[in-house]
Here is the input.
Amino acid sequence: MTLRIFILGASGHTGTQLVDIALARGHAVTAFVRSPAKISRQHERLTVVRGDPHNTDELAAAMPGHDVVVTALGVRPPQAFRPHTLVQDCAASTVAAMTRAGVKRLVLVSAAVLFPMKGILFGFFKWMLKHIGRDLGAAEDIIRATSLEWTIARPPRLLSRRDDKYRSQRDALPERGSTMSYRAVAAFAIDAVEQHRHVQEIVGLAA
Here is the structure.
């Protein structure tokens, strides 16, 4: 079954892998990005749309006919270590646009730092990533308050590796789950959409 997948954050580390895996599996992909020049990939089933993910009107105009929205938006250093609201602001505009366009399925790439885990190391990362955590937590709250068929993926520290193996666990980080690849997160997201799994669930991921 060919799906039409709408990707936010398609030029980022995880987003690039989402595009690659979706196309490899025969799906049609729309990459909604601010800077189309950052998408070097060319494919007959890839459409690149220029737009601002904060803008509900632009999103709603591009979304009709898609089966799912996958958002892998994030803030990179140094802004990531300062107060910011990028993901929550875009979650609000995305939800509003999906409602207007009639798209029901949504996958959000969040972070494992939001799990209530204990330990010195985890506490350090939670403190270091406090601004990211607040932004992602607020985005999750916006999405969870909807009736959409959402899935929230919470991976640990992400690395640039080619493997796509992952373990998943509902409402918790898998045991000894300290790292995984960007590609594995993308594989989980596409799997969840294809198999219609983890609907209205928060899922912890790890290699």
